[in-house]
Amino acid sequence: MKIIYIVEDHEAIREGVAKYLRMSGYETKTFGTLAEAKNAFEKMEPDLLIQDVMLPDGDGFTFVRDIRMSSDCPVIFMTARITESDRIFGFELGADDYITKPFSPKEMVLRIEAVFRRVDAASSPVVSSVDVSVWMLDGSVMKMNDTAHQLLIDGSIISLTVAEWKVLGYLARNAGSVVSRDMIIQKCFGYSTDSYRRVVDTHVKNLRTKLGDAREWIETVRRYGYKFIGVPAGCKDGTVEA
């Protein structure tokens, strides 16, 4: 059974969400402060963290930023902060989703299920004769191991979040073609609303930051989307060599 941590200072919301999630088959642990959540997180990581932003002993954005230094635990922000800038900032910190109050418990469960589907898809072996794709660009080599969820560029391992891996993988599978933001949203995240187009830009921005000098592998097509420009080089075996 998957364990979900809920960090929310409003008791009615916290316990209401927890009750509905337990009815949906999840184990939950609830916390009213960041200090309590931090203590629990250090002892055991959950399968998912539902995080409020405004808490009596700090803000959830800072808490998630600190978590991301050492953990890839999926995160859903649950907050009354509804501006686009807040939502974008949440995704820049590595959140997997962002849900604003008020919301229905059913919507929360659907969002959670969508996150777990993406996590499971990223961690499950891919049924393919070749699990490693190799790309070339101006003498640099990028290797993507779908089974191990591992990315190497010129021998250096690059750590990506589940969302970033999904975006990069989708762009690579459509190498040489321009992919719209709407297609990325639908294929990688299962959303269709216009409000999530900026989220794609945020994930690509984070990807480029992590890729460093290899950021040029992803081109921006103004007013439309993105294009992966690496050239497939094939793969001789099913392993990634560092």
TrEMBL record:
Task: Decide whether keyword Transport is in the record.
Answer: no
Query: Can you tell which superkingdom this protein's organism belongs to?
Result: Bacteria
Q: Response regulatory domain: which residues?
A: 3-116
**GO MF entries:** phosphorelay response regulator activity; transcription cis-regulatory region binding
Sites where 4-aspartylphosphate occurs are at 52
Which Gene3D superfamilies does this one have?
Answer: 3.40.50.2300, 6.10.250.690, Winged helix-like DNA-binding domain superfamily/Winged helix DNA-binding domain
Name the PROSITE patterns for this protein.
Answer: OMPR_PHOB, RESPONSE_REGULATORY
The record's listing under InterPro entries reads: CheY-like_superfamily, OmpR/PhoB-type_DNA-bd, Sig_transdc_resp-reg_C-effctor, Sig_transdc_resp-reg_receiver, WalR-like, WH-like_DNA-bd_sf
- UniProt entry keywords in alphabetical sequence: DNA-binding, Phosphoprotein, Transcription, Transcription regulation, Two-component regulatory system
Q: Which GO terms describe its biological process?
A: regulation of DNA-templated transcription
Domain OmpR/PhoB-type positions:
132-230
Supply the SUPFAM superfamilies for this chain.
C-terminal effector domain of the bipartite response regulators, CheY-like
What residue ranges does this record give for the DNA-binding region?
132-230
Q: Which GO terms describe its cellular component?
A: cytosol; protein-DNA complex
Q: What is this protein called?
A: Two component transcriptional regulator, winged helix family
Q: Which organism is it from?
A: Parasphaerochaeta coccoides (strain ATCC BAA-1237 / DSM 17374 / SPN1) (Sphaerochaeta coccoides)
Q: What is the lineage of its organism?
A: Bacteria, Pseudomonadati, Spirochaetota, Spirochaetia, Spirochaetales
